[in-house]
Design a protein that fits this description.
The chain is an all-alpha fold. It is built from eight helices and no strands. Helix content is about 75%, strand content about 0%. Helix 4 packs across helix 7 (about 120-135).
Length: about 150
């Protein structure tokens, strides 16, 4: 739980342009492999409620998280964005602020996707599609429909 709080704090500080070095130092000895396995389990539960479209960017971030060349800062931002999105609490309450309460999670994910976009490769997108197909069934696209006819 402490790692989650640190990662969400780093995400919030990074978005606000604040210094994150003190928080980043606290993540030196994190077992990212175990943390990523925990995150994947949470994404799979969230996916059933949120659907295919909302889950796709979280899976893209997850697969970047599991890459060997992802930096500690990127890992912290990814974990922060994913867990902030799927956890039941929010910094901006939907009840109090309606549209802003809906957008803060999406903006957090968008911010991190922009930061690691150069690492979202065709191979990662293939893994994402494979996972989404396993969870939701194969997606029927216009091209798939034409091929079937």
């Amino acid at each position: 739980m402490i790692i989650t709080i640190i990662c969400i704090t780093i995400l919030a500080y990074a978005i606000a342009g604040k210094d994150i070095n003190k928080q980043l130092d606290k993540l030196k000895n994190v077992d990212w492999k175990a943390k990523s396995a925990d995150v994947f389990g949470k994404i799979s539960v969230y996916a059933k409620k949120a659907g295919r479209v909302a889950t796709k960017p979280l899976l893209q971030l997850y697969y970047v998280l599991t890459m060997g060349e992802t930096t500690t800062l990127e890992k912290a931002l990814i974990v922060g964005a994913i867990l902030y999105t799927i956890m039941p609490f929010s910094l901006i309450s939907f009840k109090a602020h309606k549209i802003l309460g809906m957008l803060d999670e999406g903006l957090a994910v968008l911010y991190v996707v922009k930061k690691v976009q150069h690492k979202i490769t065709p191979e990662i997108n293939a893994k994402v599609d494979e996972t989404l197909n396993a969870w939701f069934g194969a997606e029927r696209t216009a091209q798939t429909a034409e091929s079937a006819e």
